[in-house]
Amino acid sequence: MDVRAVVRPARADDAPGMARVHVASWRETYRGLMPDGVLDDPGLLAARERFWTAALTDAQYAANRSAVAVRGDAVVGIAMSGPPLDPEVASAVQLYVLYLLAAEQGTGTGDELLDAVLPAEQDGTLWVADPNPRAQAFYRRRGFAPDGAERTEHGVREVRMVRPGR
């Protein structure tokens, strides 16, 4: 990859590309962790596009921050954060989504996406698949640590990680 991806705030017209990255990342990352029926659902791409369109245009999501990584004309990474959804965690921001196409991993684009939606000086929380050692190591490098909470969503076991503000 000779041209670095550009990270910028997401726009409504990014929704189709964001949906493609979301679905491709799920398939690359969660095959064997998430049920094949979810990953291979022919309606998954359309459902993710509806989700991203709403997330970028509906006033109920106005407090969220969304960013994309773009290489050329193609979205190659996505991120979104917003108000914490876990009432028992005293956190300013929750990272909801951070996905990169596999070819983009290790390029620094993930760091830029995270900083775009959850700056390093801000405390935060997130849920990450377990096992997913690469993602968990990425978040540990960024100051997150497991707090002992676990859940299962879409058939995937997840652990919660938190980061104190600086």
TrEMBL record:
<dbReference type="InterPro" id="IPR000182">
    <property type="entry name" value="GNAT_dom"/>
</dbReference>
<keyword id="KW-0808">Transferase</keyword>
<keyword id="KW-0012">Acyltransferase</keyword>
<dbReference type="InterPro" id="IPR016181">
    <property type="entry name" value="Acyl_CoA_acyltransferase"/>
</dbReference>
<protein>
    <submittedName>
        <fullName>N-acetyltransferase</fullName>
    </submittedName>
</protein>
<dbReference type="InterPro" id="IPR050832">
    <property type="entry name" value="Bact_Acetyltransf"/>
</dbReference>
<feature type="domain" description="N-acetyltransferase">
    <location>
        <begin position="5"/>
        <end position="166"/>
    </location>
</feature>
<dbReference type="Pfam" id="PF13673">
    <property type="entry name" value="Acetyltransf_10"/>
</dbReference>
